[in-house]
Amino acid sequence: MNLAMIGTGYVGLVSGVCFSDFGHDVICVDVDAEKITMLERGEVPVYEPGLDDMMARNMAAGRLRFSTDLAAGVAGADVVFISVGTPARRGDGHADLTCVYAAAREIARSLSGYTLIVCKSTVPVGTNREIGRIIAQENREAGFHVASNPEFLREGAAIEDFMRPDRVVVGVEDPKAKALMARVYRPLTLREAPIVYTDPESAELIKYAANAFLATKITFINEIAALCENVGADVKSVAKGMGMDKRIAPKFLHAGPGYGGSCFPKDTRALARIGQEANSPMRIVEQVIATNEAVKHRMIDKVMDLCGNNVNGKKIAVLGATFKPLTDDMRDSPALTIVPALVEAGANVHVVDPQGRKEGANLLVGVSWQEDVYKAIRDASCVLILTEWNEFRALDLDKVARIMREPKMADLRNIYDPAEAGAAGLTYVSVGR
Ligand code: UDX
After folding, report:
1. Statement to judge: residues 120 and 218 lie in one domain
2. Do 303 and 410 lie in a common domain?
3. Mean of the per-residue pLDDT values for the chain?
4. Judgement on whether residues 82 and 205 belong to the same structural domain of the protein
5. How far, in Å, is the centroid of ligand 1 from the Cα of 164?
6. What is the pTM (predicted TM-score) of this model?
7. Which residue lies with its CA nearest to atom 6 of ligand 1?
8. Pair (217, 157) in one structural domain
């Protein structure tokens, strides 16, 4: 099949590359000429394990192309995917649909013959129907249908998630459009990946409900972690005991410094907003948003407390800046709240992150970036673990304690054993233990 992917952000690029790996002919379109030139050279603008190899393979096979020419891309396509950004709108938290609607209008003008338009961007309920209205208005001759196909990719594991999804969600009403979507995803159904066919409104809501539920699960365990600290329980044991119940399941029960990233913060805010507008308040989600902010501030207090409520002039080594490992993404990372508070309090902050420096350099002001973990730790008065990169999981704790000015560690991802850290001579705090 001939597919066009409009928008080469994270979701668009991973999806386009993976569709070409299915054997489809894919053209990825973006307004950003510099990005397209980079992609044409085979360079991947984001860090995602395995993406560069898969991209190179499919470009060499002639199945994957990049272009700024939307009209040409759309004209030759059986299916056009919209995968442009829907950031949280400043002020009200609603998803900003400017790019989605602009893409729909431009696609409409370039349609020739029957085309299926599929929205992959995360969009509020009703947006797919609005896209249909816009296209029909813009081009009265066009033969088309619209389908919703939200994406559930995790950064750092996006290719695995695309190729072996728990499910594919398709919101579509017309049988012809449904048959086309079945052809697009045939390589996955051959591997028995389930496809959930539903109406567009339900498909749109599945995405928000799933992300908000996961954000709630994390926030729940973060709140239990705070309680554990006050009553002398261990959140790791509590999570383990809870997760063994198959109805609860063990994933997303790791206490930490609060969720971040490109999806949970924006999608929880958007869902709260959708609820308010539909006169059906999402009270749990609203509380999750507020609690997640409070969690980040609780972490600042924890570090300050460990440092005797004075970090002025002290060196602090921060291990990890990205919102999670295996990504270079800094969007809504807890580091963006925690690190500035320490800088503000006068700390001399040294940051190490295997991939975060490029993006983080502009976002974390007044810090020094280090390549070497031990160099960052030497003479520090506190080591603060913010992201659980593998690079930070096997530190020589004896050495860490030896080279520090004051041997203190705040492990906000619970990667070390408190007894082991204590034995190495570190004053050690973690989350919920
Ligand atoms: C998420 C969803 O998993 C994915 O399905 C959706 O399409 C996009 O959003 P992603 O943002 O890549 O994916 O990250 P994810 O691995 O889900 O982690 C999100 C945040 O939650 C991270 O900040 C992570 O550190 C935090 N988290 C996750 C926890 O604090 N504890 C956990 O147990 C799990």
Report:
1. no
2. yes
3. 97
4. no
5. 18
6. 0.95
7. 152
8. no
Angle between helices 335-344 and 283-306 (to 10 degrees): 40
Q: Is the CB of 323 under 6 A from ligand 1?
A: yes
Asked whether residue 205 falls in the same domain as residue 182, the answer is: no
| Phi, psi angle pair for 80, to nearest 5° | -115, 125
pLDDT at 93: 82
Q: What residue type is assigned to position 52 of the chain?
A: D
Among 198, 223, 248, residue at a domain's last position: 198
Contact (Cβ atoms closer than 8 angstroms) between residue 157 and residue 164: no
Residue 271's nearest CA partner among 259, 260, 281 is 281
d(CA 65, CA 28) in angstroms, rounded, equals: 6
* End position of a domain, from candidates 144, 173, 198: 198
Range of the domain at 225: 199-433
Catalytic residues: 263
Question: Ligand 1: distance of its center to the CA of 121 in Å?
Answer: 18
Same domain, 222 and 312: yes
**3-state DSSP call for residue 352?**
strand
The residues that bridge with 64 in the sheet, in sequence order, are 26
Q: What is the pLDDT of residue 77?
A: 97
Tens digits of residue pLDDT in 219-263 = 999 999 999 999 999 999 999 999 999 999 999 999 999 999 999
256 lines ligand 1 (CB under 6 A): yes
Same domain, 284 and 221: yes
Question: What is the CATH number for 347?
Answer: 3.40.50.720
**Total domains present in the chain:** 2
Supply the pLDDT for residue 88.
84
CA distance 347 to 315: 6
Nearest-Å Rg of the Cα atoms of the chain is 24
- Ligand 1 pocket test: pick from 51, 235, 264 the residue with the most ligand atoms within 8 Å of its Cβ: 264
pLDDT at 390: 97
12 & 152 share domain: yes
- How far does CA 340 lie from the centroid of its chain? 22
What helix, strand, coil percent values describe the chain, rounded to 5?
A: 45, 15, 40
Which residues are CB-neighbours of 112 under 8 A, at least 6 positions away? 75
pLDDT of 345 reads 98
